[in-house]
Amino acid sequence: MDRSVRTAASADALLACVTRRGRGIVRKTWMLLALMTGLAGCASQLPQHRIMLDGEPWPLDANGHIVTGTTAVFTLIDYRGVVVEACIEQSSGNDALDKSAIRRMAAASYHPEIKSGFPASSYVLTPITFGPTGTKSAPLPNIPEGERCETQPLPGISAAEVAAAEGKRVTIFPTPAGVVPDVGQPWPTDMNGVPINVDVYTTVLVDKTGHIISVGSTKPNNYAAFNAMASQAIAKMTFASSDVEHWTVVGFHFRANK
């Protein structure tokens, strides 16, 4: 074979080899690009573990979307503006959101209620809405004041702090005759004649030694027998000593059944 012919044949063979390999490289390159594009698309669908304001991971549903909802927290704020007790009045339906609501309330500081010139402990109902930026806050749940959850001390709050803020908590049951103790009046009933359960809260101004200076308002005030019994009981009470004169709250839990 002529040398020039052999050279041309070798060149053709080399070109065919390069072309075959080039196609392989192109195919692999397109496959790699497709894989990267696919991964990018999938990555956008992966759960994005957002962080809530208290630093805890935001709970996700089965599809990787953030869980939303509103938790209503009932708190006892003492005369210093510190949350000492709390409970979940209305759940968001998600335990992580409810716990976050409690932590956020506990971490915040508040201006205490001022009553007749003195700081006062007070119960506050607060809705906390969890959702994307711009989500509107939910309204307060319409729950009668005497039927709200019973607050519990928060972690890190001492018994003395609770005592100073809470004042006292007393549970009252009817006598065997079905009357309110000490006042002798019939235990109140609802419109169907069923004995009712009610929480009555009375504010009391206490001096530094824990003695009563004056008694303020009572809520609710539409049960004369309960209010009369609460007034008699408070007149005999003394309270925890503190660094300032302040209003405290006495809670009477009237329960029809033990």
Supply the CATH architecture of the largest domain.
Answer: 2-Layer Sandwich
Helix and strand succession? HEEHEEEEHEEEHE
Structural class: alpha+beta
- Average pLDDT confidence is 77
What is the CATH topology assignment of the largest domain?
Fusion Protein Consisting Of Minor Coat Protein, Glycine Rich Linker, Tola, And A His Tag, Chain: A, Domain 2
How far is the first residue's CA from the last residue's CA?
116 Å
Counted beta strands: 10
- Contiguous low-pLDDT stretches (5 residues minimum) are 1-49
SS strand fraction: 25-35%
- Principal-axis shape: globular
Biggest sheet layout? 4 strands, antiparallel
Helix content: 25-40%
CATH class membership of the largest domain: Alpha Beta
Major sheet: order of its strands? 5-1-2-6
What descriptors fit this protein?
258 residues; four-stranded antiparallel β-sheet; TolA/TonB C-terminal domain; 4 helices; 10 strands; Fusion Protein Consisting Of Minor Coat Protein, Glycine Rich Linker, Tola, And A His Tag, Chain: A, Domain 2
Mind explaining what this structure looks like?
- The protein has 258 residues and is of the alpha+beta class.
- Helices cover 28% and strands 25% of the residues.
- It has three domains: 1-45; 47-157, Fusion Protein Consisting Of Minor Coat Protein, Glycine Rich Linker, Tola, And A His Tag, Chain: A, Domain 2, CATH 3.30.1150; 167-258, TolA/TonB C-terminal domain (2-Layer Sandwich).
- The strands form three sheets. It has a four-stranded antiparallel β-sheet with strand order 5-1-2-6. Strands 7-10-8-9 form a four-stranded mixed β-sheet.
- The longest helix has 41 residues, at 3-43.
